[in-house]
Amino acid sequence: MTDLADPGLYSAGIPHSVFADLRSQPGLHRNEGPVDFWSVTRLADLVEVSRDTATYSSEVGHIQIYDIDEDALDARASMIDLDPPVHTVLRRLVSSAFTPRHVQGYRQAIRDRVIACLDRLEAARGGDWVDLVAAPIPIGVICDLMGVPEADHGYMIELSDHLVAGTSSEPLSPDAYGNTTELRLLPFNSPAAHGISEYARQLGDKRRAQPADDLISELIAAEVDGERLTDEQFANFFRLMIFAGNETTRSAMAHLALHLTQFPAEFDRVRHDGELLAGAAEEVIRYSSPILYFRRTATREVELSGTTIAAGEKVVMWYAAANFDDATFDEPLRFDVGRPKQPANVAFGGGGAHFCLGASLARLELEILIDEILERGLRLELDGEPTYVDSNFVNGIEHLPVRVM
Amino acid sequence: MAVRVQVNAEVCMGIGQCEMLEPDVFELDDDGIAHVAEGATVTEERAQELIARCPSGAITIASP
Ligand code: HEM
């Protein structure tokens, strides 16, 4: 029996044949291994779970497969692991900065970053695509938005690399970054999470003294029910944005380089028809499915797809499986920049309260990167094998050596 | 047939997909929630598309 929680299953990307097999079987798949949970692999089922936050909670247990203690949940709580109504209040503090219309305002700043990174890659005739392009662009963009000074971007990359197991090669000692908190209380059990919180606190203090036109200053001033965010709420907010806005988009951009080398004819279509640009970005996102899953916990007994889920049981939504569901997508394993907009893929979530806050921003970043690559006629070839992040949660690429042809 | 659409303010997550698709019908306000312009209508077919594409599941057709 396949244990879907085993990170080794994802060591060469998405295990398509395993997921295809699970999708074809009636009901939900019961994972029995070191940890028990139900797996949702069909898109229609996933959307049903995703949109019903009352039945499928993000707040109970954990949104990752392994449960963590109550006090650890409290310590790390941010919008992504809270249910409405608290979730809604926190999310609305920042949502207006991320609407499709609003993110258009970041277009030039994103393009400047993309140009600088591609210039560097071309000047060196290649190198590690992740280090040179996929990592610096998203962190740069989200740091700009938050108001993290340019000089600290490298530090943010370093910290967020440590957050996902395996993204960084150097293991950290428990007291790294001056950490004194028990590791189990920290997100990803990583002292780097402490580092990010500490940094947030310091930056918050600076903006409190001298507000600027950035999201940090807005959050510092924001009120919920007439009260300011606590230091902890604020730090958790900051950490969520740095992680969510960074790792995921980096992964999509890393996969883009693979797609460019594997499916050049599809990108030629975009070169000849600019209308296909948005479709190309969306297909990169579907095909890479940077987040493999999020988990919910059933708050009551419920039936889904013929399976009875008991109250308290774990339900795992495998985005990376649903995005290749042939009941929804024609020839799902084909990379096709011309797919219709509907039905939508679920790389940003299946809809409902937690739908990715940064979806429009991530799409825009990818569009601009693809556009700039095509504009300058950049042709890449692989200069070695990609190494995947050792994780059952993200479909990340650690290193991707490329040569500019 | 032209129909009116409405947004459930409790459910709207302010993602702004609707505003992008129909800027004359929807506007996101400072409260971060989509609002429908006075008297705005869309075809029933378009309404179904808007409903399907709202990630929050907040849009419905208003009863006439
Ligand atoms: C290709 C890039 C990205 C992918 C694949 C992605 C994927 C996801 C997924 C799957 C979720 C959970 C959805 C759910 O539970 O229904 C999510 C939530 C979230 N994402 Fe993204 N994301 C990306 C980029 C970004 C960016 C650039 C930001 C920057 C702000 C961001 C911020 C967030 C936040 C704050 C949440 C939590 C929202 C909530 O709980 O209400 N994401 N994302």
Overview of this protein structure:
The complex is a heterodimer of chains A (405) and B (64). Chain A has a single domain, classed as Cytochrome P450 (Cytochrome p450, Orthogonal Bundle), CATH 1.10.630.10. Chain A starts with 15 loop residues before the first helix and ends with a strand. By secondary structure, chain A is α+β, with helices and mostly antiparallel strands. The longest helix of chain A is centred in the middle third of the chain and has 19 residues, at 191-209. In chain A, 45% of the residues lie in helices and 11% in strands. The radius of gyration of chain A is 21 Å and the shape is globular. In chain A, the strands form five sheets. Chain A has a five-stranded mixed sheet. Chain B is α+β, with helices and mostly antiparallel strands. Chain B has a single domain (2-61), classed as Alpha-Beta Plaits (2-Layer Sandwich). Chain B has two helices and six strands; from the N terminus they run ββαβββαβ. Chain B starts with a strand and ends with a strand. The A-B interface holds A 51, 88, 91-92, 95-96, 98-102, 341-342, 344, 348-349, 351-353, 355, 357, 359-360 and B 10-11, 13-17, 19-20, 23, 28, 30-33, 49, 52-57.
**Main sheet attributes: strand count, strand direction, barrel closure of chain A:** 5 strands, mixed
Mean pLDDT of chain A: 92
Helix amount of chain A: 40-55%
Count of separate DSSP helical elements of chain B = 2
**Terminal Cα separation of chain B, in Å?**
12 Å
Instruction: Identify the CATH architecture of chain A.
Output: Orthogonal Bundle
